[in-house]
Design a protein that fits this description.
The protein has 177 residues and is mostly helical. It contains 5 helices and 2 strands; from the N terminus they run ααααββα.
Length: 177
């Protein structure tokens, strides 16, 4: 008791009976020691993310495939690798021109990532189905917005502007950027 009080501070006269009370100061000291030894921003970010209170909640999700909650082996590999800060891929150049590091974090922010648009469209479909099931009118953006250069106008209103014509029109010979 003297050694514990010397290291972590005095204990009140009524001794706590729960083990976490006794463990917490030592765990926090060890956490601070590990955090101080981290030498890169990535390792620090991974460590702080793993220490967050709800960071492991995804592990408790029931694997229900019909709800999209079943992860395949690759998704589990990436999730665990990201949580632990492991190398997930090799150094390479992305098709957008940016450099991809061994952590593969660029794929989360790349505007040309292959899964990004499919997830976006799947989410839009989910929202549209929700509105439809509530008997609310839904209009999704038309699929003809993209030109041959894979660019699209930003802010194209779905409601016609005048005489059933859009405020903006997409012309294949005009580059919008």
């Amino acid at each position: 008791m003297t050694r514990w009080s010397t290291q972590f501070g005095d204990v009140s006269e009524v001794l706590p009976t729960k083990q976490p009370f006794w463990d917490r100061p030592g765990v926090l000291a060890d956490k601070a020691l590990v955090e101080a030894s981290l030498n890169s921003l990535y390792s620090r970010a991974f460590f702080l993310a793993a220490c967050h209170q709800q960071s492991e909640d995804w592990l408790f999700a029931l694997p229900i495939a019909s709800c999209g909650l079943k992860l395949d082996n690759e998704a589990v590999r990436v999730a665990v690798g990201l949580r632990l800060g492991l190398d997930l891929c090799v150094l390479q150049e992305c098709h957008c021109g940016c450099r991809v590091d061994v952590y593969g974090v660029h794929s989360f922010v790349c505007k040309r990532a292959p899964g990004k648009t499919s997830r976006h469209h799947a989410f839009n479909d989910l929202i549209a189905r929700g509105f439809s099931s509530a008997c609310l009118p839904v209009t999704k953006e038309p699929s003809c917005l993209f030109g041959s250069d894979s660019k699209r106008p930003d802010g194209l209103p779905l409601v016609p502007w005048s005489s059933s014509k859009a405020l903006l029109e997409r012309h294949s010979n005009v580059s919008i950027g």
